[in-house]
Write a structure and sequence with these properties.
By secondary structure, the chain is α/β, with parallel strands linked by helices. It folds into two domains: about 5-165 and about 240-325, Rossmann fold, CATH 3.40.50; about 165-235, no CATH class. Helices cover about 25% and strands about 30% of the residues. The protein has helices at about 20-35, 75-95, 110-120, 175, 200-210, 265-275, 290-300, 310-325; strands spanning about 5-10, 15-20, 45-50, 60, 70, 95-105, 125-130, 150-155, 165-170, 180-185, 190-195, 210-215, 220-225, 225-230, 230-240, 240-245, 280-285, 305-310. A nine-stranded mixed sheet has the order 1-2-18-17-3-6-8-7-16, sandwiched between helices. α1 packs parallel to α2, α6 (about 265-275) crosses α7 (about 290-300) and α7 runs parallel beside α8. The protein is globular and about 65 Å long. Bound molecules: S-adenosylmethionine. S-adenosylmethionine binds near residues 263, 287, 308 and 310.
Length: about 325
């Protein structure tokens, strides 16, 4: 059903498609209706959509050696309409338990939020994720705060899958005491947190497991023990909606850099794909650029569909996907 534009096909549903995404999405929507796109649990459609469209920067982007990558010259109402048309089709493609992440920045995120409220329903808006990528010191903008974050809007369909994500921080044991961490008689280090909505029955169970801490004035807190490794405590923290632990693409390892402008870090996609899909699910990126989403999806054993209209983009993505599948020497 898809035209000769399929650039690369690996297995049954992995597709890298070169083309105008409006046209390709219409065809994919027909395939979905015909039951040809299916997730691991049998739910028809795509489990996760991530898109990183042009941001309306007014710029023309070029790759290494000056090769033209793409134009980002749509602005105002034209940009909003461009996004609305595609968001409507993307919604048709999502499975009933799917999620969509739309990556933008300060210029257009607020306008597209309103369009997404209309298309997906305000009640299905889950998060405005702030990706604080660092870099660009205060010098870059002398009479205002420097701009150093992107916005990622997350919406769900009626029900949605969500795997909580954690970051591990290493705390040297010698700093534990000064950070207010405590040690139990066995020598294990722990931190405490309020009991939250634990019922009395749950507290009884936690108490039996040695996980309840009573403050001097009798208040109950829950103990969270640390794993100790090489003189450090491993602190697992739940990821919230401000992501400041993933540096921008300028700081990528040389092995990850493709030279494609506006490439996003694989760590960003690892978090998104890990949170909103399971192995065997279908992940779609309709503005796939250098193929970051596809490479990460492939590595995490998801199936994937990538679309981009640029030759440099699909060539870069194809090479990257092939390299990703090569056996280690
Ligand atoms: C911001 S870049 C994506 C970068 C990508 N996330 C990465 O990590 O490399 C946006 C991409 O959207 C593509 N694009 C823009 N308009 C498109 C359209 N109408 N159809 C298909 N692709 C389009 C551009 O060619 C460009 O590669």
């Amino acid at each position: 059903m898809l035209p000769e534009r399929v650039f690369m096909k690996i297995g049954s549903s992995n597709m890298l498609i070169k083309g105008e995404n409006l046209v390709v999405l219409k065809r994919l929507a027909l395939m979905r209706r015909g039951g040809a796109i299916m997730n691991a649990d049998g739910a028809p459609g795509v489990r996760l959509i991530y898109i990183d469209p042009p941001f309306s920067t007014g710029r023309v982007f070029r790759g290494a050696a000056g090769i033209s990558a793409y134009d980002d010259t749509r602005s105002g109402g034209e940009f909003i309409e461009f996004m609305r048309e595609r968001l409507l089709l993307l919604k048709e493609l999502l499975s009933a338990n799917g999620s969509i992440y739309v990556h933008l920045d300060w210029k257009m995120a607020h306008y597209i939020k309103i369009v997404m409220d209309e298309v997906f329903g305000r009640e299905n808006f889950l998060n405005e994720i702030i990706w604080s990528y660092g870099g660009r010191g205060a010098k870059a903008m002398s009479r205002q705060f420097s701009r150093n974050h992107d916005v990622i809007l997350l919406y769900r369909m009626e029900a949605h899958l969500f795997n909580r994500q954690f970051v591990k921080k290493r705390i040297p044991v010698k700093e534990a005491r000064s950070m207010g961490l405590k040690r139990d008689p066995s020598g294990a280090w722990f931190k405490t947190a309020p009991r939250g909505d634990y019922t009395d029955k749950s507290i009884e169970r936690l108490d039996a497991e040695g996980r309840v801490y009573r403050t001097r004035n009798g208040r109950i807190r829950i103990k969270y023990f640390f794993e100790e490794q090489g003189g450090c405590l491993l602190d697992e923290r739940l990821v919230g909606d401000v992501w400041d632990d993933i540096p921008d693409a300028m700081h990528l390892a040389a092995s990850e850099k493709t030279g494609y402008p506006t490439q996003k870090p694989e760590a960003l996609l690892e978090r998104i794909i890990g949170a909103s899909s399971n192995e065997g699910d279908v992940v779609l990126d309709a503005f796939c650029g250098s193929g970051t989403t596809l490479v990460v999806a492939d590595r995490l054993k998801r199936r994937w569909i990538g679309i981009d209209k640029g030759r440099l983009a699909v060539e870069t993505a194809r090479k990257r996907l092939e390299r990703n599948r090569e056996p280690c020497p």
